[in-house]
Amino acid sequence: MRARVRRYGVLLSALALLAGCEATRFEQAPLTAEAACDPALAGRWLSVAEPPGPDGEMELQVSADCLLAVVEYQGEQRRTGEVARLHTGRHGGHRYAWVDAGWAHRRFEVDLAVAEGAVYLVRYRVQGDVLDVRSPDTRRVAHLIIDQELDGEVVARDYSIFSRVDVADGLAALERADFFKPEPLRFRRALEQPR
């Protein structure tokens, strides 16, 4: 296995692991998208905050045809952006959803070039009116790439760390027990009217 690691200073790399943005993308979707959107995802989902914060700082709006809108709230300010196509799939008894990495970088203002076809993927579960989303554990993924247990690339810069999993290891990554964060981001189905 080969790992290409760009290092912008040992100190910067250490700081990137402690603070800043962390994200793991796949060179290509490791799964084939389902023909239809998972109907359990359709609706408005409000982020569940840890006390004492308020719920709903982030809202996910998923249409029946799998268009995703992300709305962020800070006080009375509402931030929206370009809508994305959400893809869903199954593997090994788990459900996955992914979006185009280019969209994610534009939407969340990440200044990092991505190849055509690259995606950000999460594992999810819907139980009643609760949506649990587990993203890849980027720190762990970075170590797996550096230790050559997965093929990919790690970029650390500007207090941020980004990992990319190569096509050849996409499915293998999904099957690793240590690939996703143990604690999910939790959302609840919005029953009230939008702000």
Automatic annotation (TrEMBL):
> Keyword Signal, does the record have it?
yes
Source organism (scientific name): Arenimonas fontis
What is the residue range of the signal peptide feature?
1-19
Name by which UniProt lists this protein: Uncharacterized protein
Q: Which PROSITE patterns match?
A: PROKAR_LIPOPROTEIN
**Annotated keywords:** Signal
Top-level lineage group:
Bacteria
